[in-house]
Write a structure and sequence with these properties.
Blueprint: H1 2-17, E1 20-21, E2 26-30, E3 36-41, E4 52-59, E5 68-74, E6 77-82, E7 85-90, E8 106-111, E9 121-128, E10 140-147, H2 154-181, H3 184-203, H4 205-208, H5 214-242, H6 247-257, H7 267-291, H8 297-313, H9 315-354, E11 362-367, E12 370-375, E13 379-385, E14 388-393, E15 397-401, H10 405-411, E16 416-420, E17 423-426, E18 430-436, E19 439-444, E20 450-452, H11 454-464, E21 471-473
Helix pairs in contact: 1-2, 2-3, 2-9, 3-5, 3-9, 5-6, 5-7, 6-7, 7-8, 7-9, 8-9
């Protein structure tokens, strides 16, 4: 993975180096085609939001071999002329919203080789942005001349989507654990991994789909919302795991501080700051866990320290790549540890069942909350549910027992009879054996009817013949 990351980094740097940024820019009064007048130096950023603008800039001499193109990144429609010749348009800029046709967020307009001069090359650019959807501090990401077609982003995407796949797998694993165990930590981690996997897809959407620029506002807004959700979930998990006494305080701080990142300018800065605040608060909880010698606190603290170091030292790579790798690096080891812990817990519960013979009138039930002693006379039926058993008790109360049905069958007294591969019935509660077509069912007090398999029907009828109050309907 790190080799792929290095390749992606080298390609990205090479692609950046192959692009010639244009400027200084002048803002002009537009005319017919490439004719502009009354030009003056542009102060500040290129900003066509809510208006039509005409720009002019010198183009550096051509460097390197191969085809070149004008590259425009930003929330705007554009039309370009190179040395007086029209290169093309991205959408169609206009003086009003009705006249404008939105273009792509990323556009490449090829520059024919014959248009290049040894020196004195000039670009005229017409832009408008009436359909942005929100106000951007920097709507135009860049205007440059670079290679055409652009270098492949496949190595960077491959690393990102491997991490996204790992995060999706972790979300599924923790979701399955929560379904079985109903633990709050597994639900938090499932949500944490799911949010990070979703963000990986949204973050790289512009590399997969050449969308029109109005979509960009929704995309960057969605990224910020996902980073806020990830940060708050991270704080909630870390506080629950390592500093439960201060969980409410840390969570309240996260709910207030993380969304406040929206106040800063620039969506990359907003999202990076949201992640940094969340990681910082989670680091406080992990440090408290280290002080209390809580298992798992030290590696979590080290992971959060690396996260913060990359967020501060390399903020550009945080949102594009390193965040997803770090998120996968947190959730996958935790998933493995949780599976191993559940395996040890299941073994301990099975061992507890083997000691149940010391209490012949009660069943020792190992649950997620501890051990409960259930009188055998209160058990109406036992229904299998994969590796668990549902005890149906008198008064229609139910209790989930972490044991297999086959094991329980050997631990119960003679009044309990296996009537189906997934059901054991206490005949003391039997009321009626009913035939429905080709199937049979046993009706019991304080329980829903249970199915009776054909292979066990004869043995059940034989056991019930000595019960004159029982009705056999066929």
């Amino acid at each position: 993975m790190w080799r792929s990351l290095l390749i992606a980094l080298v390609l990205s740097v090479a692609a950046s180096a192959a692009q010639a940024q244009l400027g200084p820019w002048e803002i002009c009064r537009g005319g017919a085609g490439p004719t502009v007048s009354y030009c003056r130096p542009l102060q500040g950023r290129i900003d066509p939001q809510g208006r039509e603008i005409w720009l002019r800039a010198p183009v550096p001499p051509r460097r390197g071999e191969g085809p070149k193109a004008l590259l425009v990144y930003g929330a705007a429609s554009s039309e370009a002329w190179f040395n007086g010749v029209r290169l093309g348009a991205n959408g169609q800029p206009g003086p009003t919203a009705a006249a404008e046709r939105p273009g792509r967020y990323e556009a490449a307009l090829p520059i024919p080789d014959v248009l290049w001069r040894p020196s004195g090359n000039e670009l005229v650019l017409r832009m408008s942005a009436f359909h942005v959807g929100m106000r951007f501090a920097a709507p135009i990401g860049g205007v440059a001349v670079g290679r055409y077609p652009q270098p492949s982003r496949l190595p960077l995407l491959a690393v990102t989507f491997v991490a996204a796949g790992a995060l999706a797998a972790a979300a599924f694993g923790f979701g399955a654990i929560h379904t079985m165990r109903r633990t709050g930590s597994s639900l938090l981690l499932a949500a944490l991994a799911g949010v990070a996997a979703t963000q990986a897809l949204v973050e790289n959407l512009r590399h997969l789909w050449r969308y029109d620029y109005p979509v960009h506002a929704w995309r960057v807004g969605g990224i910020w919302v996902l980073t806020v959700a990830f940060s708050i979930l991270l704080v909630a998990w870390a506080a629950t795991r390592f500093w439960p006494k201060r969980r409410a305080m840390l969570l309240a701080a996260a709910v207030v501080a993380v969304p406040s990142s929206y106040a800063v300018q620039g969506f990359d800065v907003k999202s990076g700051l949201a992640l940094t605040i969340g990681a910082g608060l989670a680091l406080v909880a992990a440090a408290a866990g280290v002080a209390a010698r809580t298992p798992g606190a030290r590696p979590t603290l080290a992971w959060l320290a690396v996260f913060l170091a990359l967020a501060i030292g390399e903020p550009f790579w945080l949102l594009d790549l390193s965040f997803f790798i770090l998120a996968a690096g947190l959730t996958l080891p935790l998933l493995v540890a949780e599976v191993l812990r559940l395996g040890r817990q299941a073994e301990a519960r099975e061992a507890a069942l083997t000691r149940a013979a010391s209490l012949p009138d009660r069943l020792r039930v190992a649950t997620a909350r501890g051990v409960e002693l259930v009188p055998l006379r209160d058990i109406v039926a036992v229904v299998g549910a994969d590796d668990y058993a549902e005890l149906r008790l008198r008064g229609r109360r139910a209790l989930l027992h972490a044991a297999r049905l086959d094991h329980l069958e050997t631990s119960l007294p003679d009044s309990f009879v296996r009537i189906h591969r997934s059901a054991i019935a206490n005949l003391a509660y039997a009321e009626r054996l009913v035939r429905e077509g080709q199937r049979w069912r046993l009706e019991l007090r304080d329980s829903d009817p249970l199915p009776v398999s054909r292979s066990r029907l004869a043995a059940l009828r034989e056991r019930l013949e000595a019960a004159p109050a029982l009705s056999l309907a066929g």
